[in-house]
Design brief:
With 175 residues, the protein is of the alpha+beta class. The protein is built from four helices and four strands, in the order αβαβββαα. A four-stranded antiparallel sheet has the order 1-4-3-2. A hairpin with a 2-residue loop joins β3 and β4.
Length: 175
């Protein structure tokens, strides 16, 4: 076995181990709480005059994560920010911070737990933030569209069809 083959085999084993560690966390984690701990909302007086011309955007930033394997506790802090801008001027801003906690019933790999918190923690609390933002939008009469469903940006493998399967599919389409 060449050095390159050994390195590739070792990398594949490491990838499989990380996936196994992550799946263990998924199996033993139970949501404990989702708490809003900070909320700021500002609307400029100019917003209502320019509301049809604003660019709306949102950013989600997982911050601190913590895992205590002795206590079976894991938690993270997630920040959300929505802003409406017109020509680089921020006319509306909403910032919220949530904590998300999980009970971890068996000791797990710390790296896997932190990966879980950064990934699943966002999806756990985003609907709550989306609801809070919708209520603030209503109360401020800013008439913004609902925030979109949050999707994770993961590289996706494209499915390759063999020429034979592709030809068969094309034949079925023409008949």
């Amino acid at each position: 076995m060449t050095k390159a083959q050994k390195a590739a085999a070792d990398a594949e084993k490491l990838k499989e181990q990380r996936l196994e560690d992550y799946n263990k966390v998924v199996a033993v984690a139970e949501l404990g709480s989702i708490q809003l701990v900070k909320l700021e909302f500002d609307v400029s007086p100019d917003y209502h005059q320019k509301q049809d011309e604003v660019d709306l955007g949102y950013v989600i930033t997982p911050e601190v994560s913590h895992y205590d394997h002795d206590e079976g506790f894991a938690g993270c802090v997630i920040n959300f920010e929505v802003s409406a801008k017109h020509d680089d001027e921020r006319l509306l801003r909403c910032e919220a911070t949530y904590t998300v906690t999980y009970a971890i019933s068996e000791p797990c790999d710390e790296t896997a737990v932190k990966a879980f918190l950064g990934r699943v923690g966002v999806f756990a609390c985003y609907p709550y933030f989306r609801g809070v933002f919708a209520n603030l939008d209503w109360a401020a009469n800013t008439r913004l569209p609902p925030l979109p469903i949050h999707r994770e940006d993961l590289p996706r493998k494209t499915k390759k069809k063999s020429r034979k399967k592709l030809a068969k599919a094309m034949d079925e389409d023409t008949n």
